[in-house]
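User: Reviewer 2 asked us to show a designed sequence for the structure in our supplementary figure. I'm pasting the structure tokens here. Could you produce the per-position amino acids so we can include them in the response letter?
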């Protein structure tokens, strides 16, 4: 029997200064029988000055309601580089991973079923930090393929189609949101963002995020008054997500 995962690229984003995370991920992927390629992550702290011209800092802080952190910049452009690599690879899709994922026993089975159900998604998250107000958009064996009216965030593990990457990547070259929130703007980019539930993996950084430090110590927020534009955008996003999902009836097809 042909292995449905044999031709699937598995790319692991990992900072050069995080060999311990690489070691944990290597063990987890080997246990799942998944061959992978390490993609060196962009170090936002070391590359901040070089990348800053590609960031609309005012828009980011207005949209996100928080100060811009170098780690957020590195994360954004690391994932964007993986999307562009997929476009150039000639492969139809890839599994993109961050280096703090814990695989559940059913991960490989869930991954294979998700690939068979590719007609129901364009980007499929295999874990999430938030997944609120799900709405069914298909099945993959015992798993539900859900869209979400509410916030749906997390970059830890996701399947991405090359045609979606080719269409969306040119639109997000300038950073105005965190990457996970840019992904969540499916209503703007018109693609089928979904999650596979129950999620077959989760993220575990043991409280020490490479982006926001220990217990979000590096994350600072402006005053409530200065965050009002952020709250307005959150409300606007709920409106557009609901509108897009309600009136689409079925998943929208990618635009030409």
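Assistant: Here is a per-position design you can include in the supplement:
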């Amino acid at each position: 029997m042909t292995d449905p995962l044999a031709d699937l690229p598995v790319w692991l984003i990992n900072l050069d200064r995080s060999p311990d995370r690489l070691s944990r991920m290597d063990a987890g992927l080997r246990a799942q029988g998944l061959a992978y390629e390490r993609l060196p992550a962009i170090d936002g702290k070391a590359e901040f000055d070089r990348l800053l011209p590609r960031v609309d800092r005012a828009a980011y802080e207005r949209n996100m309601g928080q100060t811009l952190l170098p780690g957020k910049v590195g994360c954004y452009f690391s994932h964007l580089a993986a999307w562009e690599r997929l476009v150039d690879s000639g492969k139809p899709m890839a599994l993109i991973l961050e280096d703090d994922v814990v695989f559940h026993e059913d991960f490989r089975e869930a991954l294979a079923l998700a690939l068979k159900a590719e007609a129901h998604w364009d980007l499929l998250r295999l874990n999430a930090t938030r997944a609120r107000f799900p709405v069914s958009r298909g099945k993959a064996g015992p798993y539900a393929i859900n869209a979400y009216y509410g916030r749906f965030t997390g970059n830890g593990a996701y399947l991405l189609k090359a045609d979606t990457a080719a269409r969306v990547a040119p639109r997000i070259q300038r950073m105005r949101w965190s990457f996970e929130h840019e992904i969540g703007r499916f209503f703007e980019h018109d693609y089928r963002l979904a999650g596979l539930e129950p999620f077959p993996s989760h993220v575990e950084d043991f409280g020490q995020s490479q982006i926001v430090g220990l217990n979000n110590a590096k994350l600072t927020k402006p005053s409530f008054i200065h965050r009002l534009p952020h709250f307005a955008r959150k409300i606007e996003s709920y409106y557009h997500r609901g509108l897009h999902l309600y009136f689409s009836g079925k998943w929208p097809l990618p635009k030409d």
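For the response letter, you might also mention the following. The mean pLDDT is 89. The longest strand covers residues 134-140.
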